[in-house]
Amino acid sequence: MRALLSLDMSANDSVTVVSPPVLSPARAGLGWGLLGVVAFSFTVPFTRVAVAGLSPLFIGSGRAVVAAVLAAAALVLTGQARPTGAQWARLAVVAGGVVAGFPLLTSYALTTASAAHSAVVIALLPAATAVMAVLRGKERPPSLFWGTAVAGAVAALAFASLSGGGFGPPRWSDVLLFGAVAAAAVGYAEGGLLARELGSWQTVSWALVLSSPVMIALAVGSAVARPPSGTATQWAAFAYLAVVSMFLGFFAWYRGLAIGPMARVSQVQLVQPVLGIGWAALLLHEQVTWATVLGGVAVILCAAVAVRVRLDRR
User: To which H or E segment does residue 151 belong?
Assistant: First the structure.
């Protein structure tokens, strides 16, 4: 007890108990960031589960509709101020990348591609986001940054090509995955800048609300053309994608970035593809080949160097 409590007997014999130490801001930021990454790491395998019974168009749009309802409620309950005219235009860029582009493209890609294979290609996202942030912010990073970013893209392309049975053009699913990476990179880069003005989770929430009319139309049209009839497991996967991957995960991730230090917390995202490959093997019983492991290591290492070089330069 003496190691936990500090006793200070005053003149009137009162006892003062010192509160136990709390986590340092750095550890708290990393903890929240890691929680967000863990939440996002289930996105690819759960999308793979959902597309086995539900339309990829319904999954990509429907999850955004559910998340938009939650976002609207959060914005109203907390009394957030509305964005300005120029900010709405930038929110449209964020929405096009992370609300519509990435979910829809990955949903269609995962109808044929395995979760482990997709996780390797998507591992290019941190490097792609860094490149878009450099272009958007008009930064001038060293040549090592560009070299490793290009090397990561080449590694991802080589992996996608070899996975198809030999050197050749990427499969259609890989084209969709690369498109998803590009869309998310644009959305993340613009969202990162806009979050300085609107707030982190507020930026994602306003993007969800802004895109809701289009997403509702797509979800309704998809449901009419192909009435959803998934199993309980597939609906549970869809619910996770809508509530956690599309909404709650951003709360943890952006809180970690807000606590910081942002340079350290942002690098936690590099473990996401490793977790994604692990969940694919554990939950979906997909075979993780040496090609998948080597391809993932190559892409992740290139992304790690590119991100670290940019952060060190800044």
Answer: helix 143-163
Q: Can you tell me the distance from the alpha carbon of 31 to that of 24, in angstroms, rounded to the nearest whole number?
A: 11
**Residue in 76, 143, 68, 70 with CA at minimum distance from that of residue 103:** 68
Domain count, the chain: 1
CA distance 314 to 145: 12
How far apart CA 120 and CA 296 sit, in angstroms, is: 5
How does pLDDT run across 259-273, given as a tens digit for each residue? Answer: 766 556 667 888 888
Confidence (pLDDT) at 237: 97
Identify whether 226 is part of a domain. Answer: yes
- R_g over Cα of the chain: 22
Buried b (16+ CB within 10 A) or exposed e, 226-255: eebebeeebbebbebbbebbbbbbbbbbbb
CA distance 41 to 44: 7
What is the distance between the alpha carbons of residues 92 and 36, in angstroms, rounded to a whole number? 24
234-257: pLDDT as tens digits? 999 999 999 999 999 888 887 777
Cα-Cα-Cα-Cα dihedral sign, residues 288, 303, 260, 192: negative
What is the C-alpha to C-alpha distance for residues 199 and 201, in angstroms, rounded to an integer? Answer: 6
119 part of a folded domain: yes
The pTM assigned to this predicted structure is: 0.84
Residue with tokens 């806009």: 194
In a domain, 15, yes or no: no
pLDDT band at 7 (very low <50, low <70, confident <90, very high): very low
Rounded to the nearest 10 degrees, the angle between the axes of helix 102-109 and helix 115-122 is 140
Residue 169 lies in a domain: yes
Range of the domain at 207: 25-313
